[in-house]
Amino acid sequence: MRKTGNPSRTRKAQTKGSSAIGALPLCLGLITAATLPTAQAESLSATSESRTYNIAAQPLYSALSTLAEQSGVQFVYNSELVKGIDSQGVSGNYSLEGALKRLLQGSQVSYQFSNGNTVTLHKSAALEPQSNAATLPSVTVTGSEIYADTDPYNPSYTRRVTATATKTDTPLMETPVNIQLIPKAVLDDQQTIQMTEALKNVAGATFSNGSGALSDDIFIRGFRSRTYFRNGLRSGDANSSVGNRQMANVEQLEVLKGPAAVMYGRMEPGGMVNVVTKRPLNTPYYALQQQFGSFDLYRTTLDATGPLTQDDTLLYRFNGSFENSGSFREFVDKERTFIAPMITWNISPRTQVSLEMEYRHDNLIYDNNTWPFVDGQFIGMDRSRNLMEPARVNVEEKLIGLDWSHQFNDDWNIKQRFVANLQDRAENWVMGASDTLTPDNLLARQQYEVRTQDNTYYTTLDVTGHFKTGPLAHTVLMGGDYYRTDIVSNPYIATLAPINVHNPVHTVEPITAYTPAGWASNNSADFVGLYAQDQIKLPYGFHVMGGFRYQYVKQWDNLNHTEQPADDDVTPRVGVLWQAQDWLSLYGNYIENFGVSNQWATTLTGKPLPPESAQQWEVGSKFEFFGGKLSATLAYYDITKQNVVTRDPSDFTGNFSIAAGEVRSKGPEVDIRGELLPGWNLIATYANFDTRVSKDNNGLEGNRLFAVPRNVGSLWSTYDFRQGDLRGLKVGGGISMRDGATDGSRNGYQTAGYATVDLLAAYSWKVEKSKITVQLNVNNLLDKTYFPDAYWSGASSTRTIGTPRSLLGSVKVEF
Questions:
Q1: For residue 697, what are the CA distances in angstroms to 661, 662, 694?
Q2: pLDDT at position 53, please?
Q3: What's the confidence (pLDDT) of residue 310?
Q4: Could you tell me the CATH superfamily of domain 276-814?
Q5: Cα(477)–Cα(169) distance, rounded to whole angstroms?
Q6: How many CA within 13 A on the CB side of residue 9?
Q7: Closest C-alpha to 529, from 480, 601, 464, 588
Q8: Among 36, 164, 411, 440, whose CB has the most other CB atoms within 10 angstroms?
Q9: Which of 774, 794, 797, 778 is nearest to 290 (CA)?
């Protein structure tokens, strides 16, 4: 027997013979319903009143416990009845009975209201003998159709609950930090193939083409990072993102703005991108999609999930993709293979274990977009011209992950995760070797061959609990993590024949033999963190969040047998939120950050420099309308980063550094996303970046940061016809706008601002149990020539070159 809403009574009831005892309250409930019509009428009235529920997908027993807490009713049932059953959750405006029906959907569990505050659960009538007892009349559900967050058919552009900001499932309206989610529906509508392309849907997030257009080069609130997170675990260092994040198994992207070191350790203070991957479902689902587009792009993806056993004890999911494409750039192409299987074992309703793997093999071309800057301007050149030679890059990456969780009771749980990421890279780079041209317009060039092994290991352990102290409700988190990196790199360099930048003649073979480049490395690092957090729910809609982290970092240069002194620090985070109305929250926070190490910088004294640090102040407001279908966030932030490496003014050679630099970023942000009317979705963003070098000894003081525009905005809207002759048709489009960005150097060059227009048209229809969707996206409709950013280096300067007008079509079958 199990009664939710009263843990002490629940523990007493879980005794031998509970099945027999379980029949008693059911019989009493039926008798009460049949003989007390007045009480029945009052119960029905209470159950039909609508209110907002926020219950995430989770095991059914814990979902019922949450519903009991939110509604004030008690559920009576045999614990074996819900063993191994998951609930898809409920989110939106529902009657009590409507919310309960949603939680029980597909579970083969029925319910009966016994009196005003007690509900008895039992097997569905089709699965047990019929009784002659009277039953309550049915009650009409008052909520509109709500999908589970992980439902593959979910068309919503919003989510209401996330664990990324706090590592606990917390409603966004109760979270005093700025976090924006990009659900799968948005990724599907925009046919996102590269992760960074989706960041245009988030204010304050921009991207560039790092590592020769091979890495996920992310800028959040003006600070650059090539590190992203996968399900809350660090994906790798700045180098291991070579090859771009595969999107075939991505459920949604979550962008946490502002310093996140308290929960996730050393990083840049602008924020982080967390990739949430697809997990096994207990409802079978299969999808096959074929995409084809401009520049000979062909991409096939597969998604399959469901139970492996009849009782849903074992669940599986398999995602895979194969992509082959050319480019608008000369000598550039790619071939990418990716598979991601996963199995979840529901050992009991309280204990789950999951094993997952990812494998990718990328065959790519390094293209650093060389565009000479001569006589005060970039030379005239077609955007397709490539002044370098084909430089092949092969990446093989294997990821193995294991996670388990156990629910001790309704209030306490433990979760542990481990991921090993093993990467081998064979890279060729070709780049300009001089900042000047010869008199006959020749540019010197060099070619590198680099072999790299990059292995990372990450584990984390979290304990979460809920308890009350008087009128205060606490959600506490205590945890620790360990992150290890081992990187071995062996670079070689050769000289290529120079090339005429106005009349290029390509020669692939180097004119000199390869020799060691002089910067081989064999580095290791250990990152150890301990953290604690308390989220306190006070009366009158007030919420307080406080937490801290102790971080310890140790690094080695194994090649030169040197060990650096350890870095350590304690970083706090404090946030306050007032939910004045169900639809309005006001918040503020103060957060400190533990940044990248400066230990490898060369100093006059020989002593290592302290790591970068940062602080953020932020205030904002959050809004939800139409039962959470439309959300908005308005924020203003101010971040200052210290200990930035700059030239030592006492050194006249320019070879030594000190940690005296400082940069800052501040400005307003606006994020709006969701459904305005049935079928009409909208995303609107705007950010104003005031990013400056505030202290420097290299003549950069007052300069704006590299590749960060002053103003960035976007608008995306779709309409899905749900009735009439046009039912199944979806149309949409959007515009992305941004100011020019500087190169961050003393030269002060700034790119021109630009705007690009995108369009969408799709049509879906049913064939028996299958859904077929044909779709066409047009990107850069007006074929705008644009350059998001540039790096000035004279004749060897580079520009990020925007993609011309491109078409991407697809045919998708789901069943």
A1: 7, 10, 11
A2: 79
A3: 92
A4: TonB-dependent receptor, beta-barrel domain (2.40.170.20)
A5: 11
A6: 10
A7: 480
A8: 164
A9: 774
The secondary structure element, H or E, covering residue 592 is strand 584-594
Look at residue 236 in the predicted model and tell me its pLDDT: 62
CATH fold of the domain at 2-127? Phage tail protein beta-alpha-beta fold (3.55.50)
Beta strands 229-230 and 271-277, pairing class: parallel
Please report, rounded to a whole number, the percentage of residues in the chain having pLDDT higher than 70. 90
What is the C-alpha separation between 467 and 475, in angstroms, rounded?
A: 7
Q: Provide DSSP, 468-520.
A: EETTEEEEEEEEEEEEEEEEEEEEEEEEEEEEESSS-----S-SS--EE-S--
Question: Which residues are within 8 A (CB) of 518 and not within 5 positions of it... i.e. 6 or more apart?
Answer: none
| 569: number of Cβ within 10 Å | 18
Alpha-carbon separation of residue 261 from 256, 572, 608 (angstroms): 11, 9, 22
pLDDT number for residue 50? 67
Phi-psi region for residue 658, left (φ > 0), alpha (ψ -120 to 50) or beta?
A: beta
Q: Coil, strand or helix: which one is 188?
A: helix
Q: Which amino acid is at 530?
A: L
Per-residue pLDDT reduced to its tens digit, 521-574: 999 999 999 999 999 999 999 999 999 999 999 999 888 888 888 999 999 999
pLDDT tens column, 87-100: 878 877 778 888 88
pLDDT at 499: 97
> Count of residues for the chain?
815
Q: pLDDT tens for residues 47-73?
A: 556 677 778 777 787 788 788 877 777
With residue 277 as reference, give the H or E element that holds it: strand 271-277
**What are residue 794's phi and psi, to 5 degrees?**
65, -130
User: In the chain, what are the helix, strand and coil shares in percent, each to the nearest 5?
Assistant: 10, 55, 35
Q: How high is the pLDDT of residue 132?
A: 41
**Token pair in block for residue 253:** 């992207």
- Domain boundaries, given as residue ranges, for the chain: 2-127, 161-275, 276-814
Residue with tokens 């792009």: 297
**Whether CATH 3.10.310.10 fits 161-275:** no
pLDDT digits (tens, 9 = 90+) for 276-329: 999 999 999 999 999 999 999 999 999 999 999 999 999 999 999 999 999 999
Q: Are strands 233-234 and 271-277 parallel, antiparallel or unpaired?
A: unpaired
Hey, which residues does 423 pair with through a beta bridge? 397, 454
Q: Which of 521, 517, 528, 447 is nearest to 487 (CA)?
A: 521
Tell me which residues of the chain have a pLDDT lower than 50.
Answer: 1-46, 126-144
Closest CA to 200 of 785, 754, 807: 754
